[in-house]
Specification:
Length: 259
């Protein structure tokens, strides 16, 4: 167990009844939810932009869920960061996830995907943990947690990009690939990443209950949560109007909800 995982013990879930290592907490944190089926390649809808599989649908939800915790963590880092490198990394989190969120919210209705408006319990735990820290502890935990979670998702993004037949999901994967690589680089530039421990933990697959990994469904009647781009935004969402207008001729828009 690493230093920052001991600091987190008992704070990540309401009631503090479960004592978990950071590896167990962080491994799927950016993923947002566990795989919902043993057949991720199963096609769940035929769309103008290509077939939509379960893993395609889950990927869109995961990207949305990632922003719902990393965007506020970036805002916390802008307030609490103790070095210019941590503050710069925080700016990249806010900027990158606002742009990804714009893309997710644009393609979700086209593919009939229901997006969450809250991160998973596990992800909300990360926000609470970092919001309760300050000084060197905050900077170190910020860099290591986010380096680990981004490292964990990087291969997932590549897999979706290389296997999806849906052009909208492929465009999101392109954007996510660039964003995740940028955020990995920003965490490394803080000089605070313990590579031996974070790399071990990001490749160690613990088991957590699905309820801890899955964001709740959006509440009926509640306005959709929007991650607002910063005034100095440099990240660019996918031009969905241009992409959606082209289509692939693969078939009609999906009738059944995929979310």
């Amino acid at each position: 167990m690493v230093r920052f995982s001991r600091n987190a013990t008992g704070t990540l879930f309401v009631g503090g009844a479960m004592a978990l290592t950071l590896a167990a907490l962080a491994y799927p944190a950016m993923l947002g939810l566990s795989q919902v089926s043993g057949a991720p390649d199963r096609v769940i809808a035929s769309t103008r932009w290509g077939p939509l599989t379960e893993q395609d649908r889950d990927f869109v939800v995961k990207v949305r869920a990632a922003g719902l915790w990393e965007y506020p963590v970036g805002q916390i880092g802008l307030r609490k960061g103790g070095s210019e490198a941590v503050i710069t990394a925080s700016r990249h989190l806010v900027d990158g996830h606002a742009a990804l969120d714009t893309t997710c919210r644009a393609i979700a209705p086209l593919l009939n995907i229901t997006l969450p408006d809250e991160a998973s319990p596990q992800q909300r735990g990360f926000v609470r943990q970092l919001d309760g820290e300050s000084g060197r502890r905050f900077d170190t935990d910020f860099a290591n947690i986010l380096r680990m979670t981004h490292g964990s998702i990087f291969n997932t993004v590549a897999k979706i990009r290389s296997t999806t037949k849906n052009s909208l999901v492929r465009a999101l994967a392109d954007q996510a690939n660039d964003t995740v690589l940028d955020h990995i680089s920003m965490m490394e530039k803080t000089g605070l990443v313990d590579f031996d421990r974070t790399l071990f933990q990001q490749t160690t697959s613990p088991k957590l209950p699905d309820s801890d990994l899955t964001p709740p469904p959006p509440a009926a009647g509640r306005p959709e949560v929007v991650l607002t781009p910063p005034p100095s935004a440099t990240s660019t969402p996918v031009d969905i109007d241009a992409l959606a207008g082209g289509g692939t001729g693969a078939g009609p828009s999906p009738a059944p909800p995929a979310g």
